Amino acid sequence: MSNILDRFRVEGQVAIVTGSGRGIGAATAIALADAGADVVVTARTVEQLEDTAEQIRKRGRRALVVACDVLDKQQRQALVDQTIEHFGRLDILVNNVGGSGAIKPTLMTTEEELEACFKLNTTTAFAMSRLCAPLMVKTAEKGAIINISSVAGHLAQSGFISYGIGKAAMNFMTLNLAQDFAPKVRVNAISVGSTLTSALEGVINDEVERAIVERTPMNRLGQPEDVAACVLFLASPAASYITGEIYGVNGGLTGPPMAMPRSSF
Ligand SMILES: NC(=O)c1ccc[n+]([C@@H]2O[C@H](COP(=O)([O-])OP(=O)(O)OC[C@H]3O[C@@H](n4cnc5c(N)ncnc54)[C@H](OP(=O)(O)O)[C@@H]3O)[C@@H](O)[C@H]2O)c1
Predict the structure, then answer these.
(1) Is the dihedral of CA 158, 258, 102, 119 positive or negative?
(2) How far apart are CA 169 and CA 163, in angstroms?
(3) Which of 6, 25, 131, 153 has the fewest CB atoms in 10 Å of its CB?
(4) pLDDT one-digit tens code per residue, 74-107
């Protein structure tokens, strides 16, 4: 038997990581490069993408920077077209773009906000998966899709109605796609807990951070690399018998990480 660690490498593979200018997406793109992949780094802010690309090139891997708003159909198509033109193959898709929008009680949340959150978290990942899966099979004969979800998708709490629905839908989409795309393309998700990125910094202060840490059995916030390591595992041949799973990378949370105000009547 060969060394088991070889199965954790993605040598010669090509990955698209959406939202890889900063945070979890940037850490994931760099982790995949560490393990041997060439990476398409994509988001809306080119300057940040160039920083991630530089880290990838320092590791001796190729990086392609593509500015793309995943909410835009033409830009999604151009992203995938440029990937195939440049690298000639696609093996891994990480649907990382997502977000909570404003965190507020149901009675203050509009239908438009709910739909916008669903679109950002679930519809874009659905559209990217539909575009990429056939190309993975055509150019690499197999593929792996990893969806970046959240504990908000299965731990109900006030304030998270839009985000919770968006990520819960992403989780169930993951299960459906895994059934639909097997055996050629594996589809898994990661249920992320509170992780130190610019997105989290936008919604917490020192007091909230202390409260989250107290509720988290592992007694700390997550780091982007905690999630990136799990993405690498799920993308790699080490996980070749794993599909349709939602892995928790959340420090052992079994309840909501923060208390938000309820709707007032
Ligand atoms: N951090 C947490 O505590 C946490 C917890 C649970 C789940 N998550 C999930 O983890 C994922 C990444 O979050 P993060 O905390 O790493 O966020 P982040 O630090 O804000 O990074 C988000 C990345 O996505 C890009 N992006 C945002 N909107 C985009 C769009 N419409 N089109 C293309 N790119 C876009 C951003 O770049 P531009 O703005 O330049 O486009 C940036 O590169 C999200 O799905 C989030 O829901 C995070």
Answers:
(1) negative
(2) 10
(3) 6
(4) 999 999 999 999 999 999 999 999 998 888 999 9
pLDDT at 264: 92
Give DSSP secondary structure letters for 67-131: E--TT-HHHHHHHHHHHHHHHS---EEEE------S-B-GGG--HHHHHHHHIIIIIHHHHHHHH
Is residue 185 in contact with ligand 1, taking CB distance under 6 Å? no
Question: Is the Cβ–Cβ distance between 25 and 97 less than 8 Å?
Answer: yes
End-to-end CA distance of the chain: 65
Express each pLDDT in 25-83 by its tens digit: 999 999 999 999 999 999 999 999 999 999 999 999 999 999 999 999 999 999 999 99
CB of 67 shorter than 6 A to ligand 1: no
For residue 65 and ligand 1, the question of a CB distance below 6 A is answered with no
- pLDDT confidence tier of residue 149, bands split at 50, 70 and 90: very high
Q: How far is the CA of 29 from the centre of ligand 1 (A)?
A: 13
Q: Give me ligand 1 centre to Cα 218, in Å.
A: 23
3-class SS of residue 162:
helix
- Helix then strand then coil, in percent of the chain rounded to 5, is 50, 15, 35
- Kindly give the residue spans of alpha helices, DSSP state H, lying in 97-255: 111-118, 124-140, 161-181, 198-201, 206-215, 224-235
Q: What is the pLDDT of residues 216-246, one digit of tens each?
A: 999 999 999 999 999 999 999 999 999 999 9
Stronger pLDDT, 100 or 192, i.e. the higher one: 192
Distance separating alpha carbons of residues 75 and 247, to the nearest angstrom: 30
CATH number among 3.10.180.10, 1.10.10.10, 3.40.50.720, 3.30.300.30, domain 8-248: 3.40.50.720
Is there a contact between 97 and 76 (Cβ–Cβ < 8 Å)?
no
